[in-house]
Amino acid sequence: MRKSFAVWMTFFCALAVSARTTKKKPEIDYSQFQKKLSKDEQVLHALDRLSFGPRPGDLGAVKKMGLKKWIDLQLHPERIKENPELAKKLQPLESLRMSQSATASAYPPPQLIRAVAQGRQPLPEDPIARAAVERQVRRFHIKKDGKDDSPMEPAVPLDQLLSREQIKTLRSGAADQKKELLEALPEDKVDDIVIAMPQGLRNQLMASASPVLRRKLLLANSPQQVVFYDLAEAKLYRAIMSNRQLEEALADFWFNHFNVFIDKGSDRFMLPSYERDAIRPHVLGRFRDLLEATASSPAMLFYLDNWQSVAPPAPSRRPAGNRPQRGLNENYARELMELHTLGVDGGYTQKDVTEVARCFTGWTIKNPQQGGGFTFNERVHDKGEKLVLGVRIPAGGGKEDAEKVLDILANHPSTARFVSTKLAQRFVSDNPPPELIARMAKTFQHSHGDIREVMKTMLNSKEFFSEGAYHAKVKTPLEMIASAVRATGAQVDYAFPLAQQIGQLGEPLYRKLEPTGYSSANAEWVSSASLLGRMNFALSLTQNKVQGVTVDAARYGDDPVETARQVLFTDATQQTRDAIARALLDQKEKNPGAPTPALVAGLVIGSPDFQRR
Amino acid sequence: MNRRIFLKSSAMAMVGIGSTPAWLSRALYAADAPSPRKKVLVAIFQRGAVDGLNVVVPHGEQRYYDLRPTIAVARPDGTADSAIDLDGFFGLHPSLKPLKPIYDSGRLAIVHAVGSPDPTRSHFDAQDYMESGTPGRKATADGWLNRALPAALDKTDPVHTSPVRAISFGADLPRALRGRNEAVSINNLNDFQVRDPRGASTFESMYANTADKVLNGTGRETFEAVKLMQSIQKQTYTPANGARYPNGRLGQSMKQIAQLIKSDVGLEVAFTDVGGWDTHVNEVGQKASVGQLANLLNDFGQALAAFYQDLGDRMADVSVVTMSEFGRTARENGNRGTDHGHANVMFALGGDIQGGKIYGKWPGLAQEQLYENRDLNLTTDFRDVLGELVTRHLGNRQVTAVFPGYDSPKFPGLVG
Q1: Chain B CB within 8 Å of residue A2 CB
Q2: pTM summary value
Q3: Which DSSP state fits B58?
Q4: Sign of CA dihedral B233, B192, B348, B73
């Protein structure tokens, strides 16, 4: 009774504060944050918040190690032995390991291949691009006088490579027949076969193919999508399989905080380097390092247009006629303060935005289309004196002007408060108690922005392990799907369909257009389409209708109450249990003797209980 | 019998979705008929800041050609890559050919040099301001389209309100539809259900009864909407009058909105969006009829025209309005594109629209006439356009409640 009252109060609070930015907050009852959780609740809560959801056996393992010790270990991911299966899954996703210039050249678009094959364009100079184009061109033959959009015919047609039987199996055979056939294809013929297939067939076979073959199919169909595919798959595999769960949760948090939209121009191939080099190394490190890394990353410079920002030329040197004038671009300066550091009410003015933009002129990218790296272009840097948040930056400076800005911002009390608030919103509740935020902010300032220390303050607090925080957050689509896979111990052989599902539920990975990134606020994720999507996913998952994912429902017996407990790692609510009981009665009437464990598990995963963490 | 009470009774919930016979579903609506057919407002948001100057082309102004030596749309000359003349001064981008007949028949109105007075050129902020309906104010929690819904007919008996009064297409509920009134987001009409019949009634019971207030509220709305959708889902939809919707997301959303309107489920406002308009680079191909903008406009024009054609007589009750967060620079940049600007173009089409003309005072493109020396200047506030549609078309007279802080709107006279 106590628990459901607390739960009700928390939801009432969450509902009351579901508005986005309100100047006048309704009176909130923070007393629930003083009420301590039981030991068992603490363990479940820690797993819910620091990981992407418990897996069978996790609660026992954490209890055995000791909760404090487990949390401490998660705060030091380098001490955790990583899951070797994860490395195997990540191995084929090669674009994630490439340098930025390599990802820019390695996946030439079909138009380029066609142009080269038709002799309209020479082979690219860059060796990686050249090799990639040559590989493809060799396999096609195009009528030399063909029009721009004439189809490219494979040099060797499919019926010369495979028997009619084999082609029939590929098109319409059973899943395991397809798999078998694909695995048995001779090595020296595979590339030709892939090219010879029509696009539709390649798409269909993705689920049945081995990871290596899948890559070839993808490269043939949509080379421009390879980077996105790799990023999305890796994110899912890591969330589901990594032992360094807190690191993954924070990687997701910081990517959203310093969001970049993959579909903006060159960002298409800049993201692997961004995530790998600018975000991941610093997730538990120093905030100032994160600022430095993101501010100087080509991905961010491109996304928020700073790479084009230049000091406006003196009036006498303006170009004649109607040639477009380049000038100051304030986009990055604004978002740097509003979204990355101080927060919208952090105390900066429009004038500060302009001054910060002036400091950042010259921070640009060499050859963005070819994946060049950061460069400071002194010629376009505004060398005048600037005044940023009351601090004078003397004239005559260069790259260090922006460095000084980053120092000012990193040390500003509003930044400590804003960052602490965002962390608490993700890990504690949508409306965290002000005292907790104040303590975290204090740690932030005293430790000079040491994220690990701030996390410690938060995770050691009574507010974290309180009734007020327990089950206070609604899972985001990523969290819902990852936790469902983890909770059921499902085997994932092909993660991309899961990423697509997450998109359907409203959180297409790497595709948040706005620099705010995806919010973790409950109100963002509770829409009709999203809820229905979750219910449908839940039932598909446990009945093995989700491509690439296998659940062994035999692990669940015939007792629905017990099944619910296994999936939720705690007791289901009365309402959920009652609804399931009625469903089973209904089933017994309609379909007596039919097994129900998969259905029950699916109903639990789609229930309101499972949507909370 | 009161439809909503009937739906909400636990006995009904037990019978479950999927086992409600179709005749019964229809009977439930018949019980409400004849209710006055509601007016419908459809809002389409072009995300990314569409280049209004190349959409409705001021071909009568030489400066347009001076400012855009490589990407301007040619003066009307009858060829496929030149502007389609509208009134001697303005013309349509050639890819919007399907809209010309609607303009000629007086049912499509264009407003030029319209937009938000807020100076922001941030996509995010500007979209936020346009959807919340309060430019410059970040604290507004709800959206104009939600506030626009007229109060339920009978205040003491809210049960006559349809659970699908307000719909948006897409997984997330957009800002514009957040607020007090129920609004439902739909990815796809036919998918708007719990596919497995064994799960439907169980989930409904769980969400209707859960103590989780956040999930309970939306859960109930969702299932009420699902039940309503069932009768629609059972029928295959054939657009009327030979209308053919383009394949992309916009076309399919418009088709489903048409389907919902014709199904008389009580739809009043609908929202959908289309992205990709942020053409900083290579906005125009080798000629006006090819390239990024042309492709987008092709799809856009076909979707609107198909919708108009499909609805036929029903357009008498329907208005469609389009908007974008801001326009683009008057001058082309060095990359055959344009950058973020200020004022833009809005379209309004419908049965009670006084179309066949271009509204708004044209500010001109001379250097001193440009906003901040770079963008089309604003002469009409977007709230004037939306306000008139909300007041005169939808019938919600409380326009200052719909656009708080905007006390003296000047309606352009779009609605007749």
Answers
A1: no
A2: 0.84
A3: -
A4: negative
